[in-house]
Amino acid sequence: MQAVRLLRANQLELQDIPEPEPGPEDVVIAVEACGICGSDRHMYAGEYPTNPPVTLGHEFAGRVIATGSQVQRVQTGDLVTGDPNIACGTCPQCRNGRPNLCANLTAIGVQRDGGFAQYLVMPQAQAHKLPRHTDPVHAAFCEPLACCLHALDVASIRPGDSVAILGGGVIGLLMVQLCRLAGATTIILSTRQKPRRDLALQLGATHAIDPQARDAVGQIKAIVPQGADVALECAGVPDTFSQSIASVRRGGAAIIFGVMPQGQAVSIEPFDLLVNEIRLEGAYLNPLTHARAAALVASRTLALDSLVSRIVPLAEVPAIIASAPAQGEIKIIARPSL
């Protein structure tokens, strides 16, 4: 079968490799869609821990074609999305209900072979069924959506809250929709690209600002003078990290979601955090939220088609990951059948 393999940092190739075989509790799926994520670019550049040689792709969905002898949760023909993060279940963090912080965490598409391939094998526990008529492209959004749901859980957004979303990529645009569903009444998206600002307003943002036109924090505080109740940092760059802290009210929350390269440092003033009692927290991965994401996708509540920039065959994936995102790119989906 064909698979996109990370051989080492800055070397990604489409290769022919053997088809996977299921163990007793495994399922094999024919991958129908797999999203390209910013983390894939970080892994390609050696900026995010991985385990090459490995097939990338952690935002995947597909049809079950084979099951192990002990599999009971799914059957052949089911459309499933895969939670890529496999926790051990026995370490202190797992036992405390925080499997995203598992000491022995392994991830499909990161440490073990993922979804940029014709076929994929995974434990049945990671498979979440979707209605068989669900668009596989929509199903591929379950993983990033599950991570966004965790960020909203950490943020504790309440009806009537004001939220500043810093970064207008696919995550920021998903956050706009989720904040609207959570009852936020002021939703401000900050992004440099006008098409993304326009789309954010269509998806439920009440305001969309250009951080290049004027100071982003000043623009946010012109809308909510005391500062936002919550800021969601969704770009993974130093500027938006700093803006997330500066744009919230006293007693507000700044949630760090975007991935910056490992080792990159950002300057902050602890005095500001102290006297303003700003809650600064990270939101990492998707602990116990993948099933909720699958239910949301199945409900067709979210506008997902508007987030798909293009659909490509596996052969185009290496060049896309090796390049910076194109102007206007939101989400690119690979379909092995093309």
Q: Describe it for me?
A:
Strands 3, 5, 6, 9, 10, 17 and 18 form a seven-stranded mixed beta sheet that branches. Strands 13-12-11-14-15-16 form a six-stranded parallel beta sheet, with helices on both faces. Strands 2-1-4 form a three-stranded antiparallel beta sheet. The longest helix is centred in the middle third of the chain and has 14 residues, at 142-155. It has eleven helices and 18 strands. With 338 residues, the chain is an alpha/beta fold. α4 crosses α5 (170-182) and α4 (142-155) packs across α10 (290-299). It folds into two domains: 2-141 and 304-334, Medium-chain alcohol dehydrogenases, catalytic domain (Quinone Oxidoreductase, Chain A, domain 1, Alpha-Beta Complex); 146-282, 3-Layer(aba) Sandwich (Rossmann fold), CATH 3.40.50.720.
Q: Which key phrases capture this entry?
A:
Rossmann fold, seven-stranded mixed β-sheet, alpha/beta, Quinone Oxidoreductase, Chain A, domain 1, 18 strands, 338 residues, 27% strand, 2 domains, 27% helix, six-stranded parallel β-sheet
Give a summary of the structure in a few sentences:
This protein is α/β, with parallel strands linked by helices and 338 residues long. The protein has helices spanning 38-44, 92-95, 136-139, 142-155, 170-182, 194-203, 216-223, 238-246, 270-275, 290-299, 317-321, and strands at residues 2-8, 11-16, 26-35, 54-55, 59-67, 79-82, 85-86, 106-107, 119-123, 127-130, 162-166, 186-190, 207-209, 228-233, 248-256, 279-282, 308-312, 331-334.
